[in-house]
Amino acid sequence: MKSFLNRFATPLTAGLFAVSAFSGIALFFHVASGAFHEMHEWLSMVLLLPFAFHLSRNWTALLGYARRGVLLLPVAATLVAAALFVVPALVSGQMGGGEPPFRAMQLMTETDLADLAPVLKTTPASLLSGLRLRGYKVASTKETLDSVATASGISAVQLLFELLPAK
Q1: Which residues partner with 84 through β-bridges?
Q2: Which of 21, 125, 156, 163 lies 20 to 30 A from 39 at CA?
């Protein structure tokens, strides 16, 4: 494993960064956000492992940058840029969010089935029986898609997409 990481840490970091950059650009410009959102999140998390290994392999060089003061300005600028996004959200208390379609999906998956049914152009009883017919574990219309999905071992968004009415 160590020889694999020694050999591939930097190429993996570069490849995963390229994917993260490409998907991040697509998300920024709202191009096929549904296709890129989950991939961007997961592969950015995977990027952390080869990045950490890359840092450990190049720690001496990183310390050299720090000793020469070259590291200070880029790190400070990055922290200030991040703070420009985080601090206003912390101060206003509006921590959640994201793009409106994702917020809407989150609201729909966290809503009681009884309240969600009219949005899906059905009745609460029909929604409940339809879920049961599909094999989902659901006891009542007081449950949410989140709880049904968790009990059934799938994602709530996947379940929501299954239930959306055809045009």
Answers
A1: none
A2: 163
Higher pLDDT: 164 or 142? It is 142
How many independent structural domains does the chain possess?
3
Worst-scoring range by mean pLDDT, 78-82, 97-101, 136-140? 97-101
Single-letter code of the amino acid located at 63: L
Give helix 100-109 / helix 33-57 axis angle, nearest 10°.
100
Residue 49 lies in a domain: yes
Residue 63 belongs to a domain: no
Q: Give the 3-state secondary structure of residue 96.
A: coil
Two structure tokens written together for 16: 């995963």
Residue 35: strand, helix, or coil: helix
Rg (alpha carbons) of the chain, rounded to whole number: 22
Work out the burial of residue 133: count CB atoms within 10 Å of its CB; fewer than 13 is exposed, 13-18 middle, 19 or more buried. Answer: exposed
If asked whether residues 112 and 158 sit together in one domain, one would say yes
Does 25 share its domain with 8?
Answer: yes
The verdict on pTM exceeding 0.70 is no
